[in-house]
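Chapter review: from sequence to fold.
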Amino acid sequence: MTDHTPLTVTLPEGVRCAIALSYDTDMAAGYAPDGVCHGRTAPFLAEYMLRLCETAESFGVALHFFQICNGLEPDQDVHYLSDIIARGHLVDCHTYSHLPLITPDVELLAQELERSNRLLADRLGVTSTVLRGPGGYAEGLRGLPENQRVILEQGYRWVSCQYSDNLRSRDWEAAVRNAAVDVPFAYDTGLIELPLQTWSDRWFFEGVQCVDRAAWETFRAQWGHRRVPDGFHPAWTAPDALEKWIEYNLAVAEYAYDNRLLCIMTWHPYSHYLHDPENRMLPALLQWAASQPERVWVCTVRDACGMVG
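The token string follows.
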């Protein structure tokens, strides 16, 4: 007996494929000297997020950010997020402390989501409708009905947290085609899962393209969560890692286009700040989308929710 049911994706009329692009705004543990992930966004990262918004706006595209909500406490400056929202972009919940949604402590999960919802409403005037799960889980929330119920009770109908084993390898072709494999589904509780369907930038740069882990550890100790100097290049990745990242994402988009798919991509501003300081990836994707003979809709995960049923 299964505890989930695959769902049908219906693209809007006139849309050949849809690419739901979102960013998790973590001050990532993988770049932190103390190994702690949090949402208290450093000024350099807020600046980079606003650059991403400017790029998207030049193509008429809205971006979708998932925010760790401990970065919304009253002692934190959230003007950059207010600006992002005022400009037509979206902010949704990434939990309060980067707590995994698969935690056995469902009471803590309920407390975190309740606090996150309150902070989003009080600081940003936002009611979050879709929840991004920190880290991603090979089985999503399968076998965890109590966790699912807590999420539903906190007002979420949609969750995006499955990151399957298909994406934890270095198999390029499998990762390109994964949007056709890990499709949206409903848990038996009624909670709807929109899986992460492509390699994340964190896994790509710090996994697939990592060639010197010691250099990465040195960076964390010297520069973690600090503004890097002009001309900085991550010494732990292959020299052509950014070119490969652009190539990979365009291959994913072309596969989605050829097969009329919804494709859910998840990136991180911090990874792009380090590996793509000139902001090449986002305009490359948007230029590709704009150049196709049939419409490619670069949309939000909230938009994707409306295609699933």
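Two observations follow directly from the output. The domain at 19-305 is CATH 3.20.20.370 (TIM Barrel). The mean pLDDT is 97.
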